[in-house]
Structure formats: C-alpha cells, structure tokens
Amino acid sequence: MTDAPLNRISEQLGAESAGSKSPGSPPLHLWHPELSGDIDIRIQRDGSWWHEGELIRRASLVALFASILRREADGEYYLVTPVEKWRIQVEGFPLQVVDFDVDEEGRIITVITNTGRRYLLGRDYPLFLPDAASPQEAGEVPAVGLDHGLAACFSRPAWYRLAEAAEQRNGRTGVESDGLFFPIARD
C-alpha cells in the first residue's frame, strides 16, 4: 500500500476542521462515509503508532490521526474523514494516559493523553476497569472513556502516580474527581 490514503487524509483534514464540536477536533460525529478499506496502520499496546511496519515518529501526525479515530459498534477502529473511512488495527486501547493533574483542592483530576489532549475525569470521561473477559482490553490498569467510543489506558508511570493518590472508601481503592469516586482496582 502506498502513502496515498495518508496524504489524502491529511489534506482533507486541513480543509474540513472548521465547524467542529470542540476546538481542535474535527466534526467526526458528522462524517459517515462508506468503508474505503483497510490501511496498514497498527496502534500497539504501548501506544506507539506504526504504518507499513515503520514507527510513526512525528507526534503531530499521530495527534492528527488520533483526532479522526473512531471505534464503531462493530468493535473495529477507523480513521474517518468526510469522504473516506479506513479500518486500522489496535492492540488494547488506542490511546494512553501519560500524566494527570489534580486541582489545588484535590477534587478534579485532569488526565493527559499521549497526543497531548486533556480530559476532565468525571461523568463525561469516566475512569473504568477494563473487562477482564475481553482479551483485547484485559488488564489490571484502569482506563478512561473518551469521545467516539475510544478509551485511554494509563501508562505505567501514570498508573503508579494514580495508585499513590488513591484512598480507601467502603472497602474499595479509588480516586475522586468531579464529585465521583472511581475504583482503580478489583479489590
């Protein structure tokens, strides 16, 4: 496969990002093209992105592609533009939480993904424990539900920090953010 689909995707995104429902995010919710096919892009369990066996080293390109990534009801992941939809392979979760901030009062946790996007841990972006029955997502490290059916698991360093911030409540180990308590382990 040539780079032609990647080049077309990049060009389309530059022209179509206006009108997005959130700043810096294309209006992915409005795009529903037919499947264009499979593209040789794989997101490995460690959060690295690969194209035709080569590591994608440009963080800006990974962030661009992550902005048009969607998981659909069939459980598959797709890069979607207004006119194309390419299926890609994802091992585990497509994104990683690489760090987080806690506000001064200790009541709000903002997670930061490997693409630099920030999400407030709460009702819209909840922390959850991956389904142990799902071989693709199994693990003991929590993840955060994101837009478009995506999720980000915690990287090892971020997970250790989160575990240090955890407290016990009603026999559960977890963290509080935005007025909600999120278990971080299967106690």
CATH class of the largest domain: Alpha Beta
Count of DSSP helices?
3
**How big a fraction of the residues is strand?**
25-35%
Helix fraction? 10-25%
The number of E-state strands comes to 15
Task: Describe the sheet with the most strands.
Answer: 6 strands, mixed
Total domains, how many? 2
Give unreliable regions as ranges.
Answer: 14-23
CATH topology-level fold name of the largest domain: duf1285 like fold
Overall geometric form? elongated
At CATH's second level, what is the architecture of the largest domain?
A: Roll
Distance between the termini: 47 Å
Describe the structure.
This protein is an alpha+beta fold and 187 residues long. The chain folds into 2 domains: 4-90, duf1285 like domain (duf1285 like fold); 95-180, Roll (duf1285 protein fold), CATH 2.30.270.10. The chain has 3 helices and 15 strands. The chain has helices at 4-16, 59-66, 156-165, and strands at residues 37-43, 49-51, 54-55, 69-71, 77-80, 85-90, 95-102, 109-113, 118-120, 127-128, 143-145, 151-154, 167-169, 172-177, 180-183. The strands form 3 sheets. The chain has a 6-stranded mixed beta sheet with strand order 3-2-1-6-5-4. The longest helix has 13 residues, at 4-16. The chain is elongated and about 55 Å long. The protein starts with a helix and ends with a strand. The model is unreliable at 14-23 (pLDDT under 50).
